[in-house]
Design goal:
137 residues; disordered C terminus; Ybab, Chain: A; single chain; alpha+beta
C-alpha cells in the first residue's frame, strides 16, 4: 500500500510555511507600529504666496503651528482670517501627502494600507472650488 502525501505537503513543509507566514505577519506589525510613530510626528508646512502666513499641521489636519509675518497685519481681519484658513488647509494637505508617501515606502504604493490612507485623506481634503485635485502619492 502506497502512502499518499497530503495536498499541502509534508507536516514539515506545512510548519515551515506557517513559520514564514508568522514571520511576515510580525514584520508587517512592526512596520505598522513604526509607521504609526512616524505619523504621530509627521508635520506639513505651507506658506501663503506672499509669505504673510506660515502654517504647520499634523497628519490629522490639526493646526499645530502658526507664524504671522509683520505684513500679515496690513491685511483686514477678514482677509487675514481667510489667508490663515487657506494656508492651514494647504499645510494639512501637505502632511497628508507626506503620510501617503511614507505609507507607500513602508507597504508599497498599491497596498491596501496606502490605498485606505490615500482615500481617507482625499475625503478629508477635497479641492476647493477652482482648484485641481490634490495628489496623494
Amino acid at each position: 500500500m502506497t502512502q499518499q502525501s497530503a495536498p499541502w505537503g509534508s507536516a514539515d513543509d506545512a510548519i515551515a510555511r506557517i513559520n514564514v507566514q508568522v514571520a511576515e505577519a510580525q514584520e508587517r506589525a512592526a512596520k505598522a507600529s513604526e509607521l504609526r510613530a512616524e505619523m504621530d510626528a509627521l508635520r506639513g508646512t505651507a506658506t501663503s504666496p506672499r509669505g504673510e502666513v506660515t502654517a504647520t499641521a499634523d497628519v490629522s489636519g490639526r493646526l499645530v503651528g502658526l507664524d504671522l509675518a509683520p505684513a500679515a497685519f496690513d491685511k483686514s481681519p477678514a482677509a487675514l482670517s481667510e489667508l490663515i484658513v487657506a494656508t492651514a488647509g494647504k499645510a494639512a494637505a501637505r502632511a497628508g501627502q507626506l503620510a501617503v508617501e511614507r505609507a507607500a515606502e513602508a507597504f508599497g504604493d498599491d497596498s491596501p494600507v496606502t490605498a485606505q490612507l490615500r482615500g481617507e485623506l482625499a475625503e478629508r481634503n477635497p479641492p476647493a472650488a477652482g482648484e485641481s485635485t490634490i495628489s496623494y502619492g
